[in-house]
Amino acid sequence: MKKECVTMLLAGGIGKRLGQLTKNVAKPAVPFGGRYRIIDFTLSNCVQSKMYTVGVLTQYQPLTLHKHIGIGKSWDLDRMDDGLTILSPFTEHDGGKWYEGTADAVAKNIRFIERYDPDYVLILSGDHIYHMDYNELLHHHKSVNADVTISVIQVPWEETSRFGIVNMNNRYQITSFEEKPLSAKSNLASMGIYIFKWDVLKDFLQYDHNNPDSTHDFGKDILPYMLHKKRKLYAYPFSGYWKDVGTVQSYWEAHMDLLDDHFLLQLNKKNWITYSHDNNFAPQLIASTGSVNQSLINNGCVISGSVEASVLFEDVQIGIHTIVKNSILHPGVRVGHHVILERVIVQEGVNVPDFTTVSVPLSEEPVVLTNEYFQEIQKVGGLNR
User: Fold this and answer.
1) What is the reported pLDDT for 93?
2) Which pLDDT score is estimated for 96?
């Protein structure tokens, strides 16, 4: 049963800044990219990297996520001796508690990790969009003999307050770590991807568990305390595409990135496939009255209007004389006739009435359209924005 490296995938996030998108589902289960859910990217990275021992830690609104993941078959993780294991909060002799932070979630599953007697533990977040070979991260970790290696990427300076910010020397050794600073000293952001020596991590998890002043979080507690104790923390600079889709704006931007001709994350790369559950809908139909330009259109869609620079998930229907532009339509959306939608995100199963106009200017955050949205609009007597 011994494995060199065990992966712990944190997938219990609420994702409050995504608003209606995460009202009834965990952030990693939010649809993304026309046929995927956000967690598919991390799970696919694990398989492509041959990291087959994966514990998925879930908590908030897990029903959709559990149904989507199943036993991991879509990612070739339905294995006998390792594979995918869902790790939800559980009750013990003391009554049990919810996971109280990222570090606490891992600490409460130490027995799962120890089943495999690993040398290293890889900690991942299930809510980012990227392709990465984790073996390269592991190789870097070994080469510098680090206690922990943090994958980092440069982010715009104005966004540094959203991330854990790393400062390092010219040998990639981390000299300080700031969790969501108001005034950052660098723009190297932690990607929420860590690889630890297991014996070191276990000691720090146990100390943190017994610390009443801790919030039991890797970024706020574990990593700063490791620095304080002068453990060896190193950075692994990542140069590919990576997106934290933690806000409605960033979620919309990531979809528009997919439509860029020169986009760095190619979903159709044969050597790095992103796997997902397939609903097996019939092929898309573009009617004689319909047109599509620079868009991702999934199976089961019937388009009788105009679609431009948009992403349509499976089983979406677009009516006659309707224009959809710079928008994201989740599975099962029905858009009526004579409708104009621009810079909106339409949630799964929503019916957009005939003669609706919702056009959001670039200066504003895209609007998430729900059935409740249209019910409220009807109460005030209008469907135009």
Assistant:
1) 58
2) 63
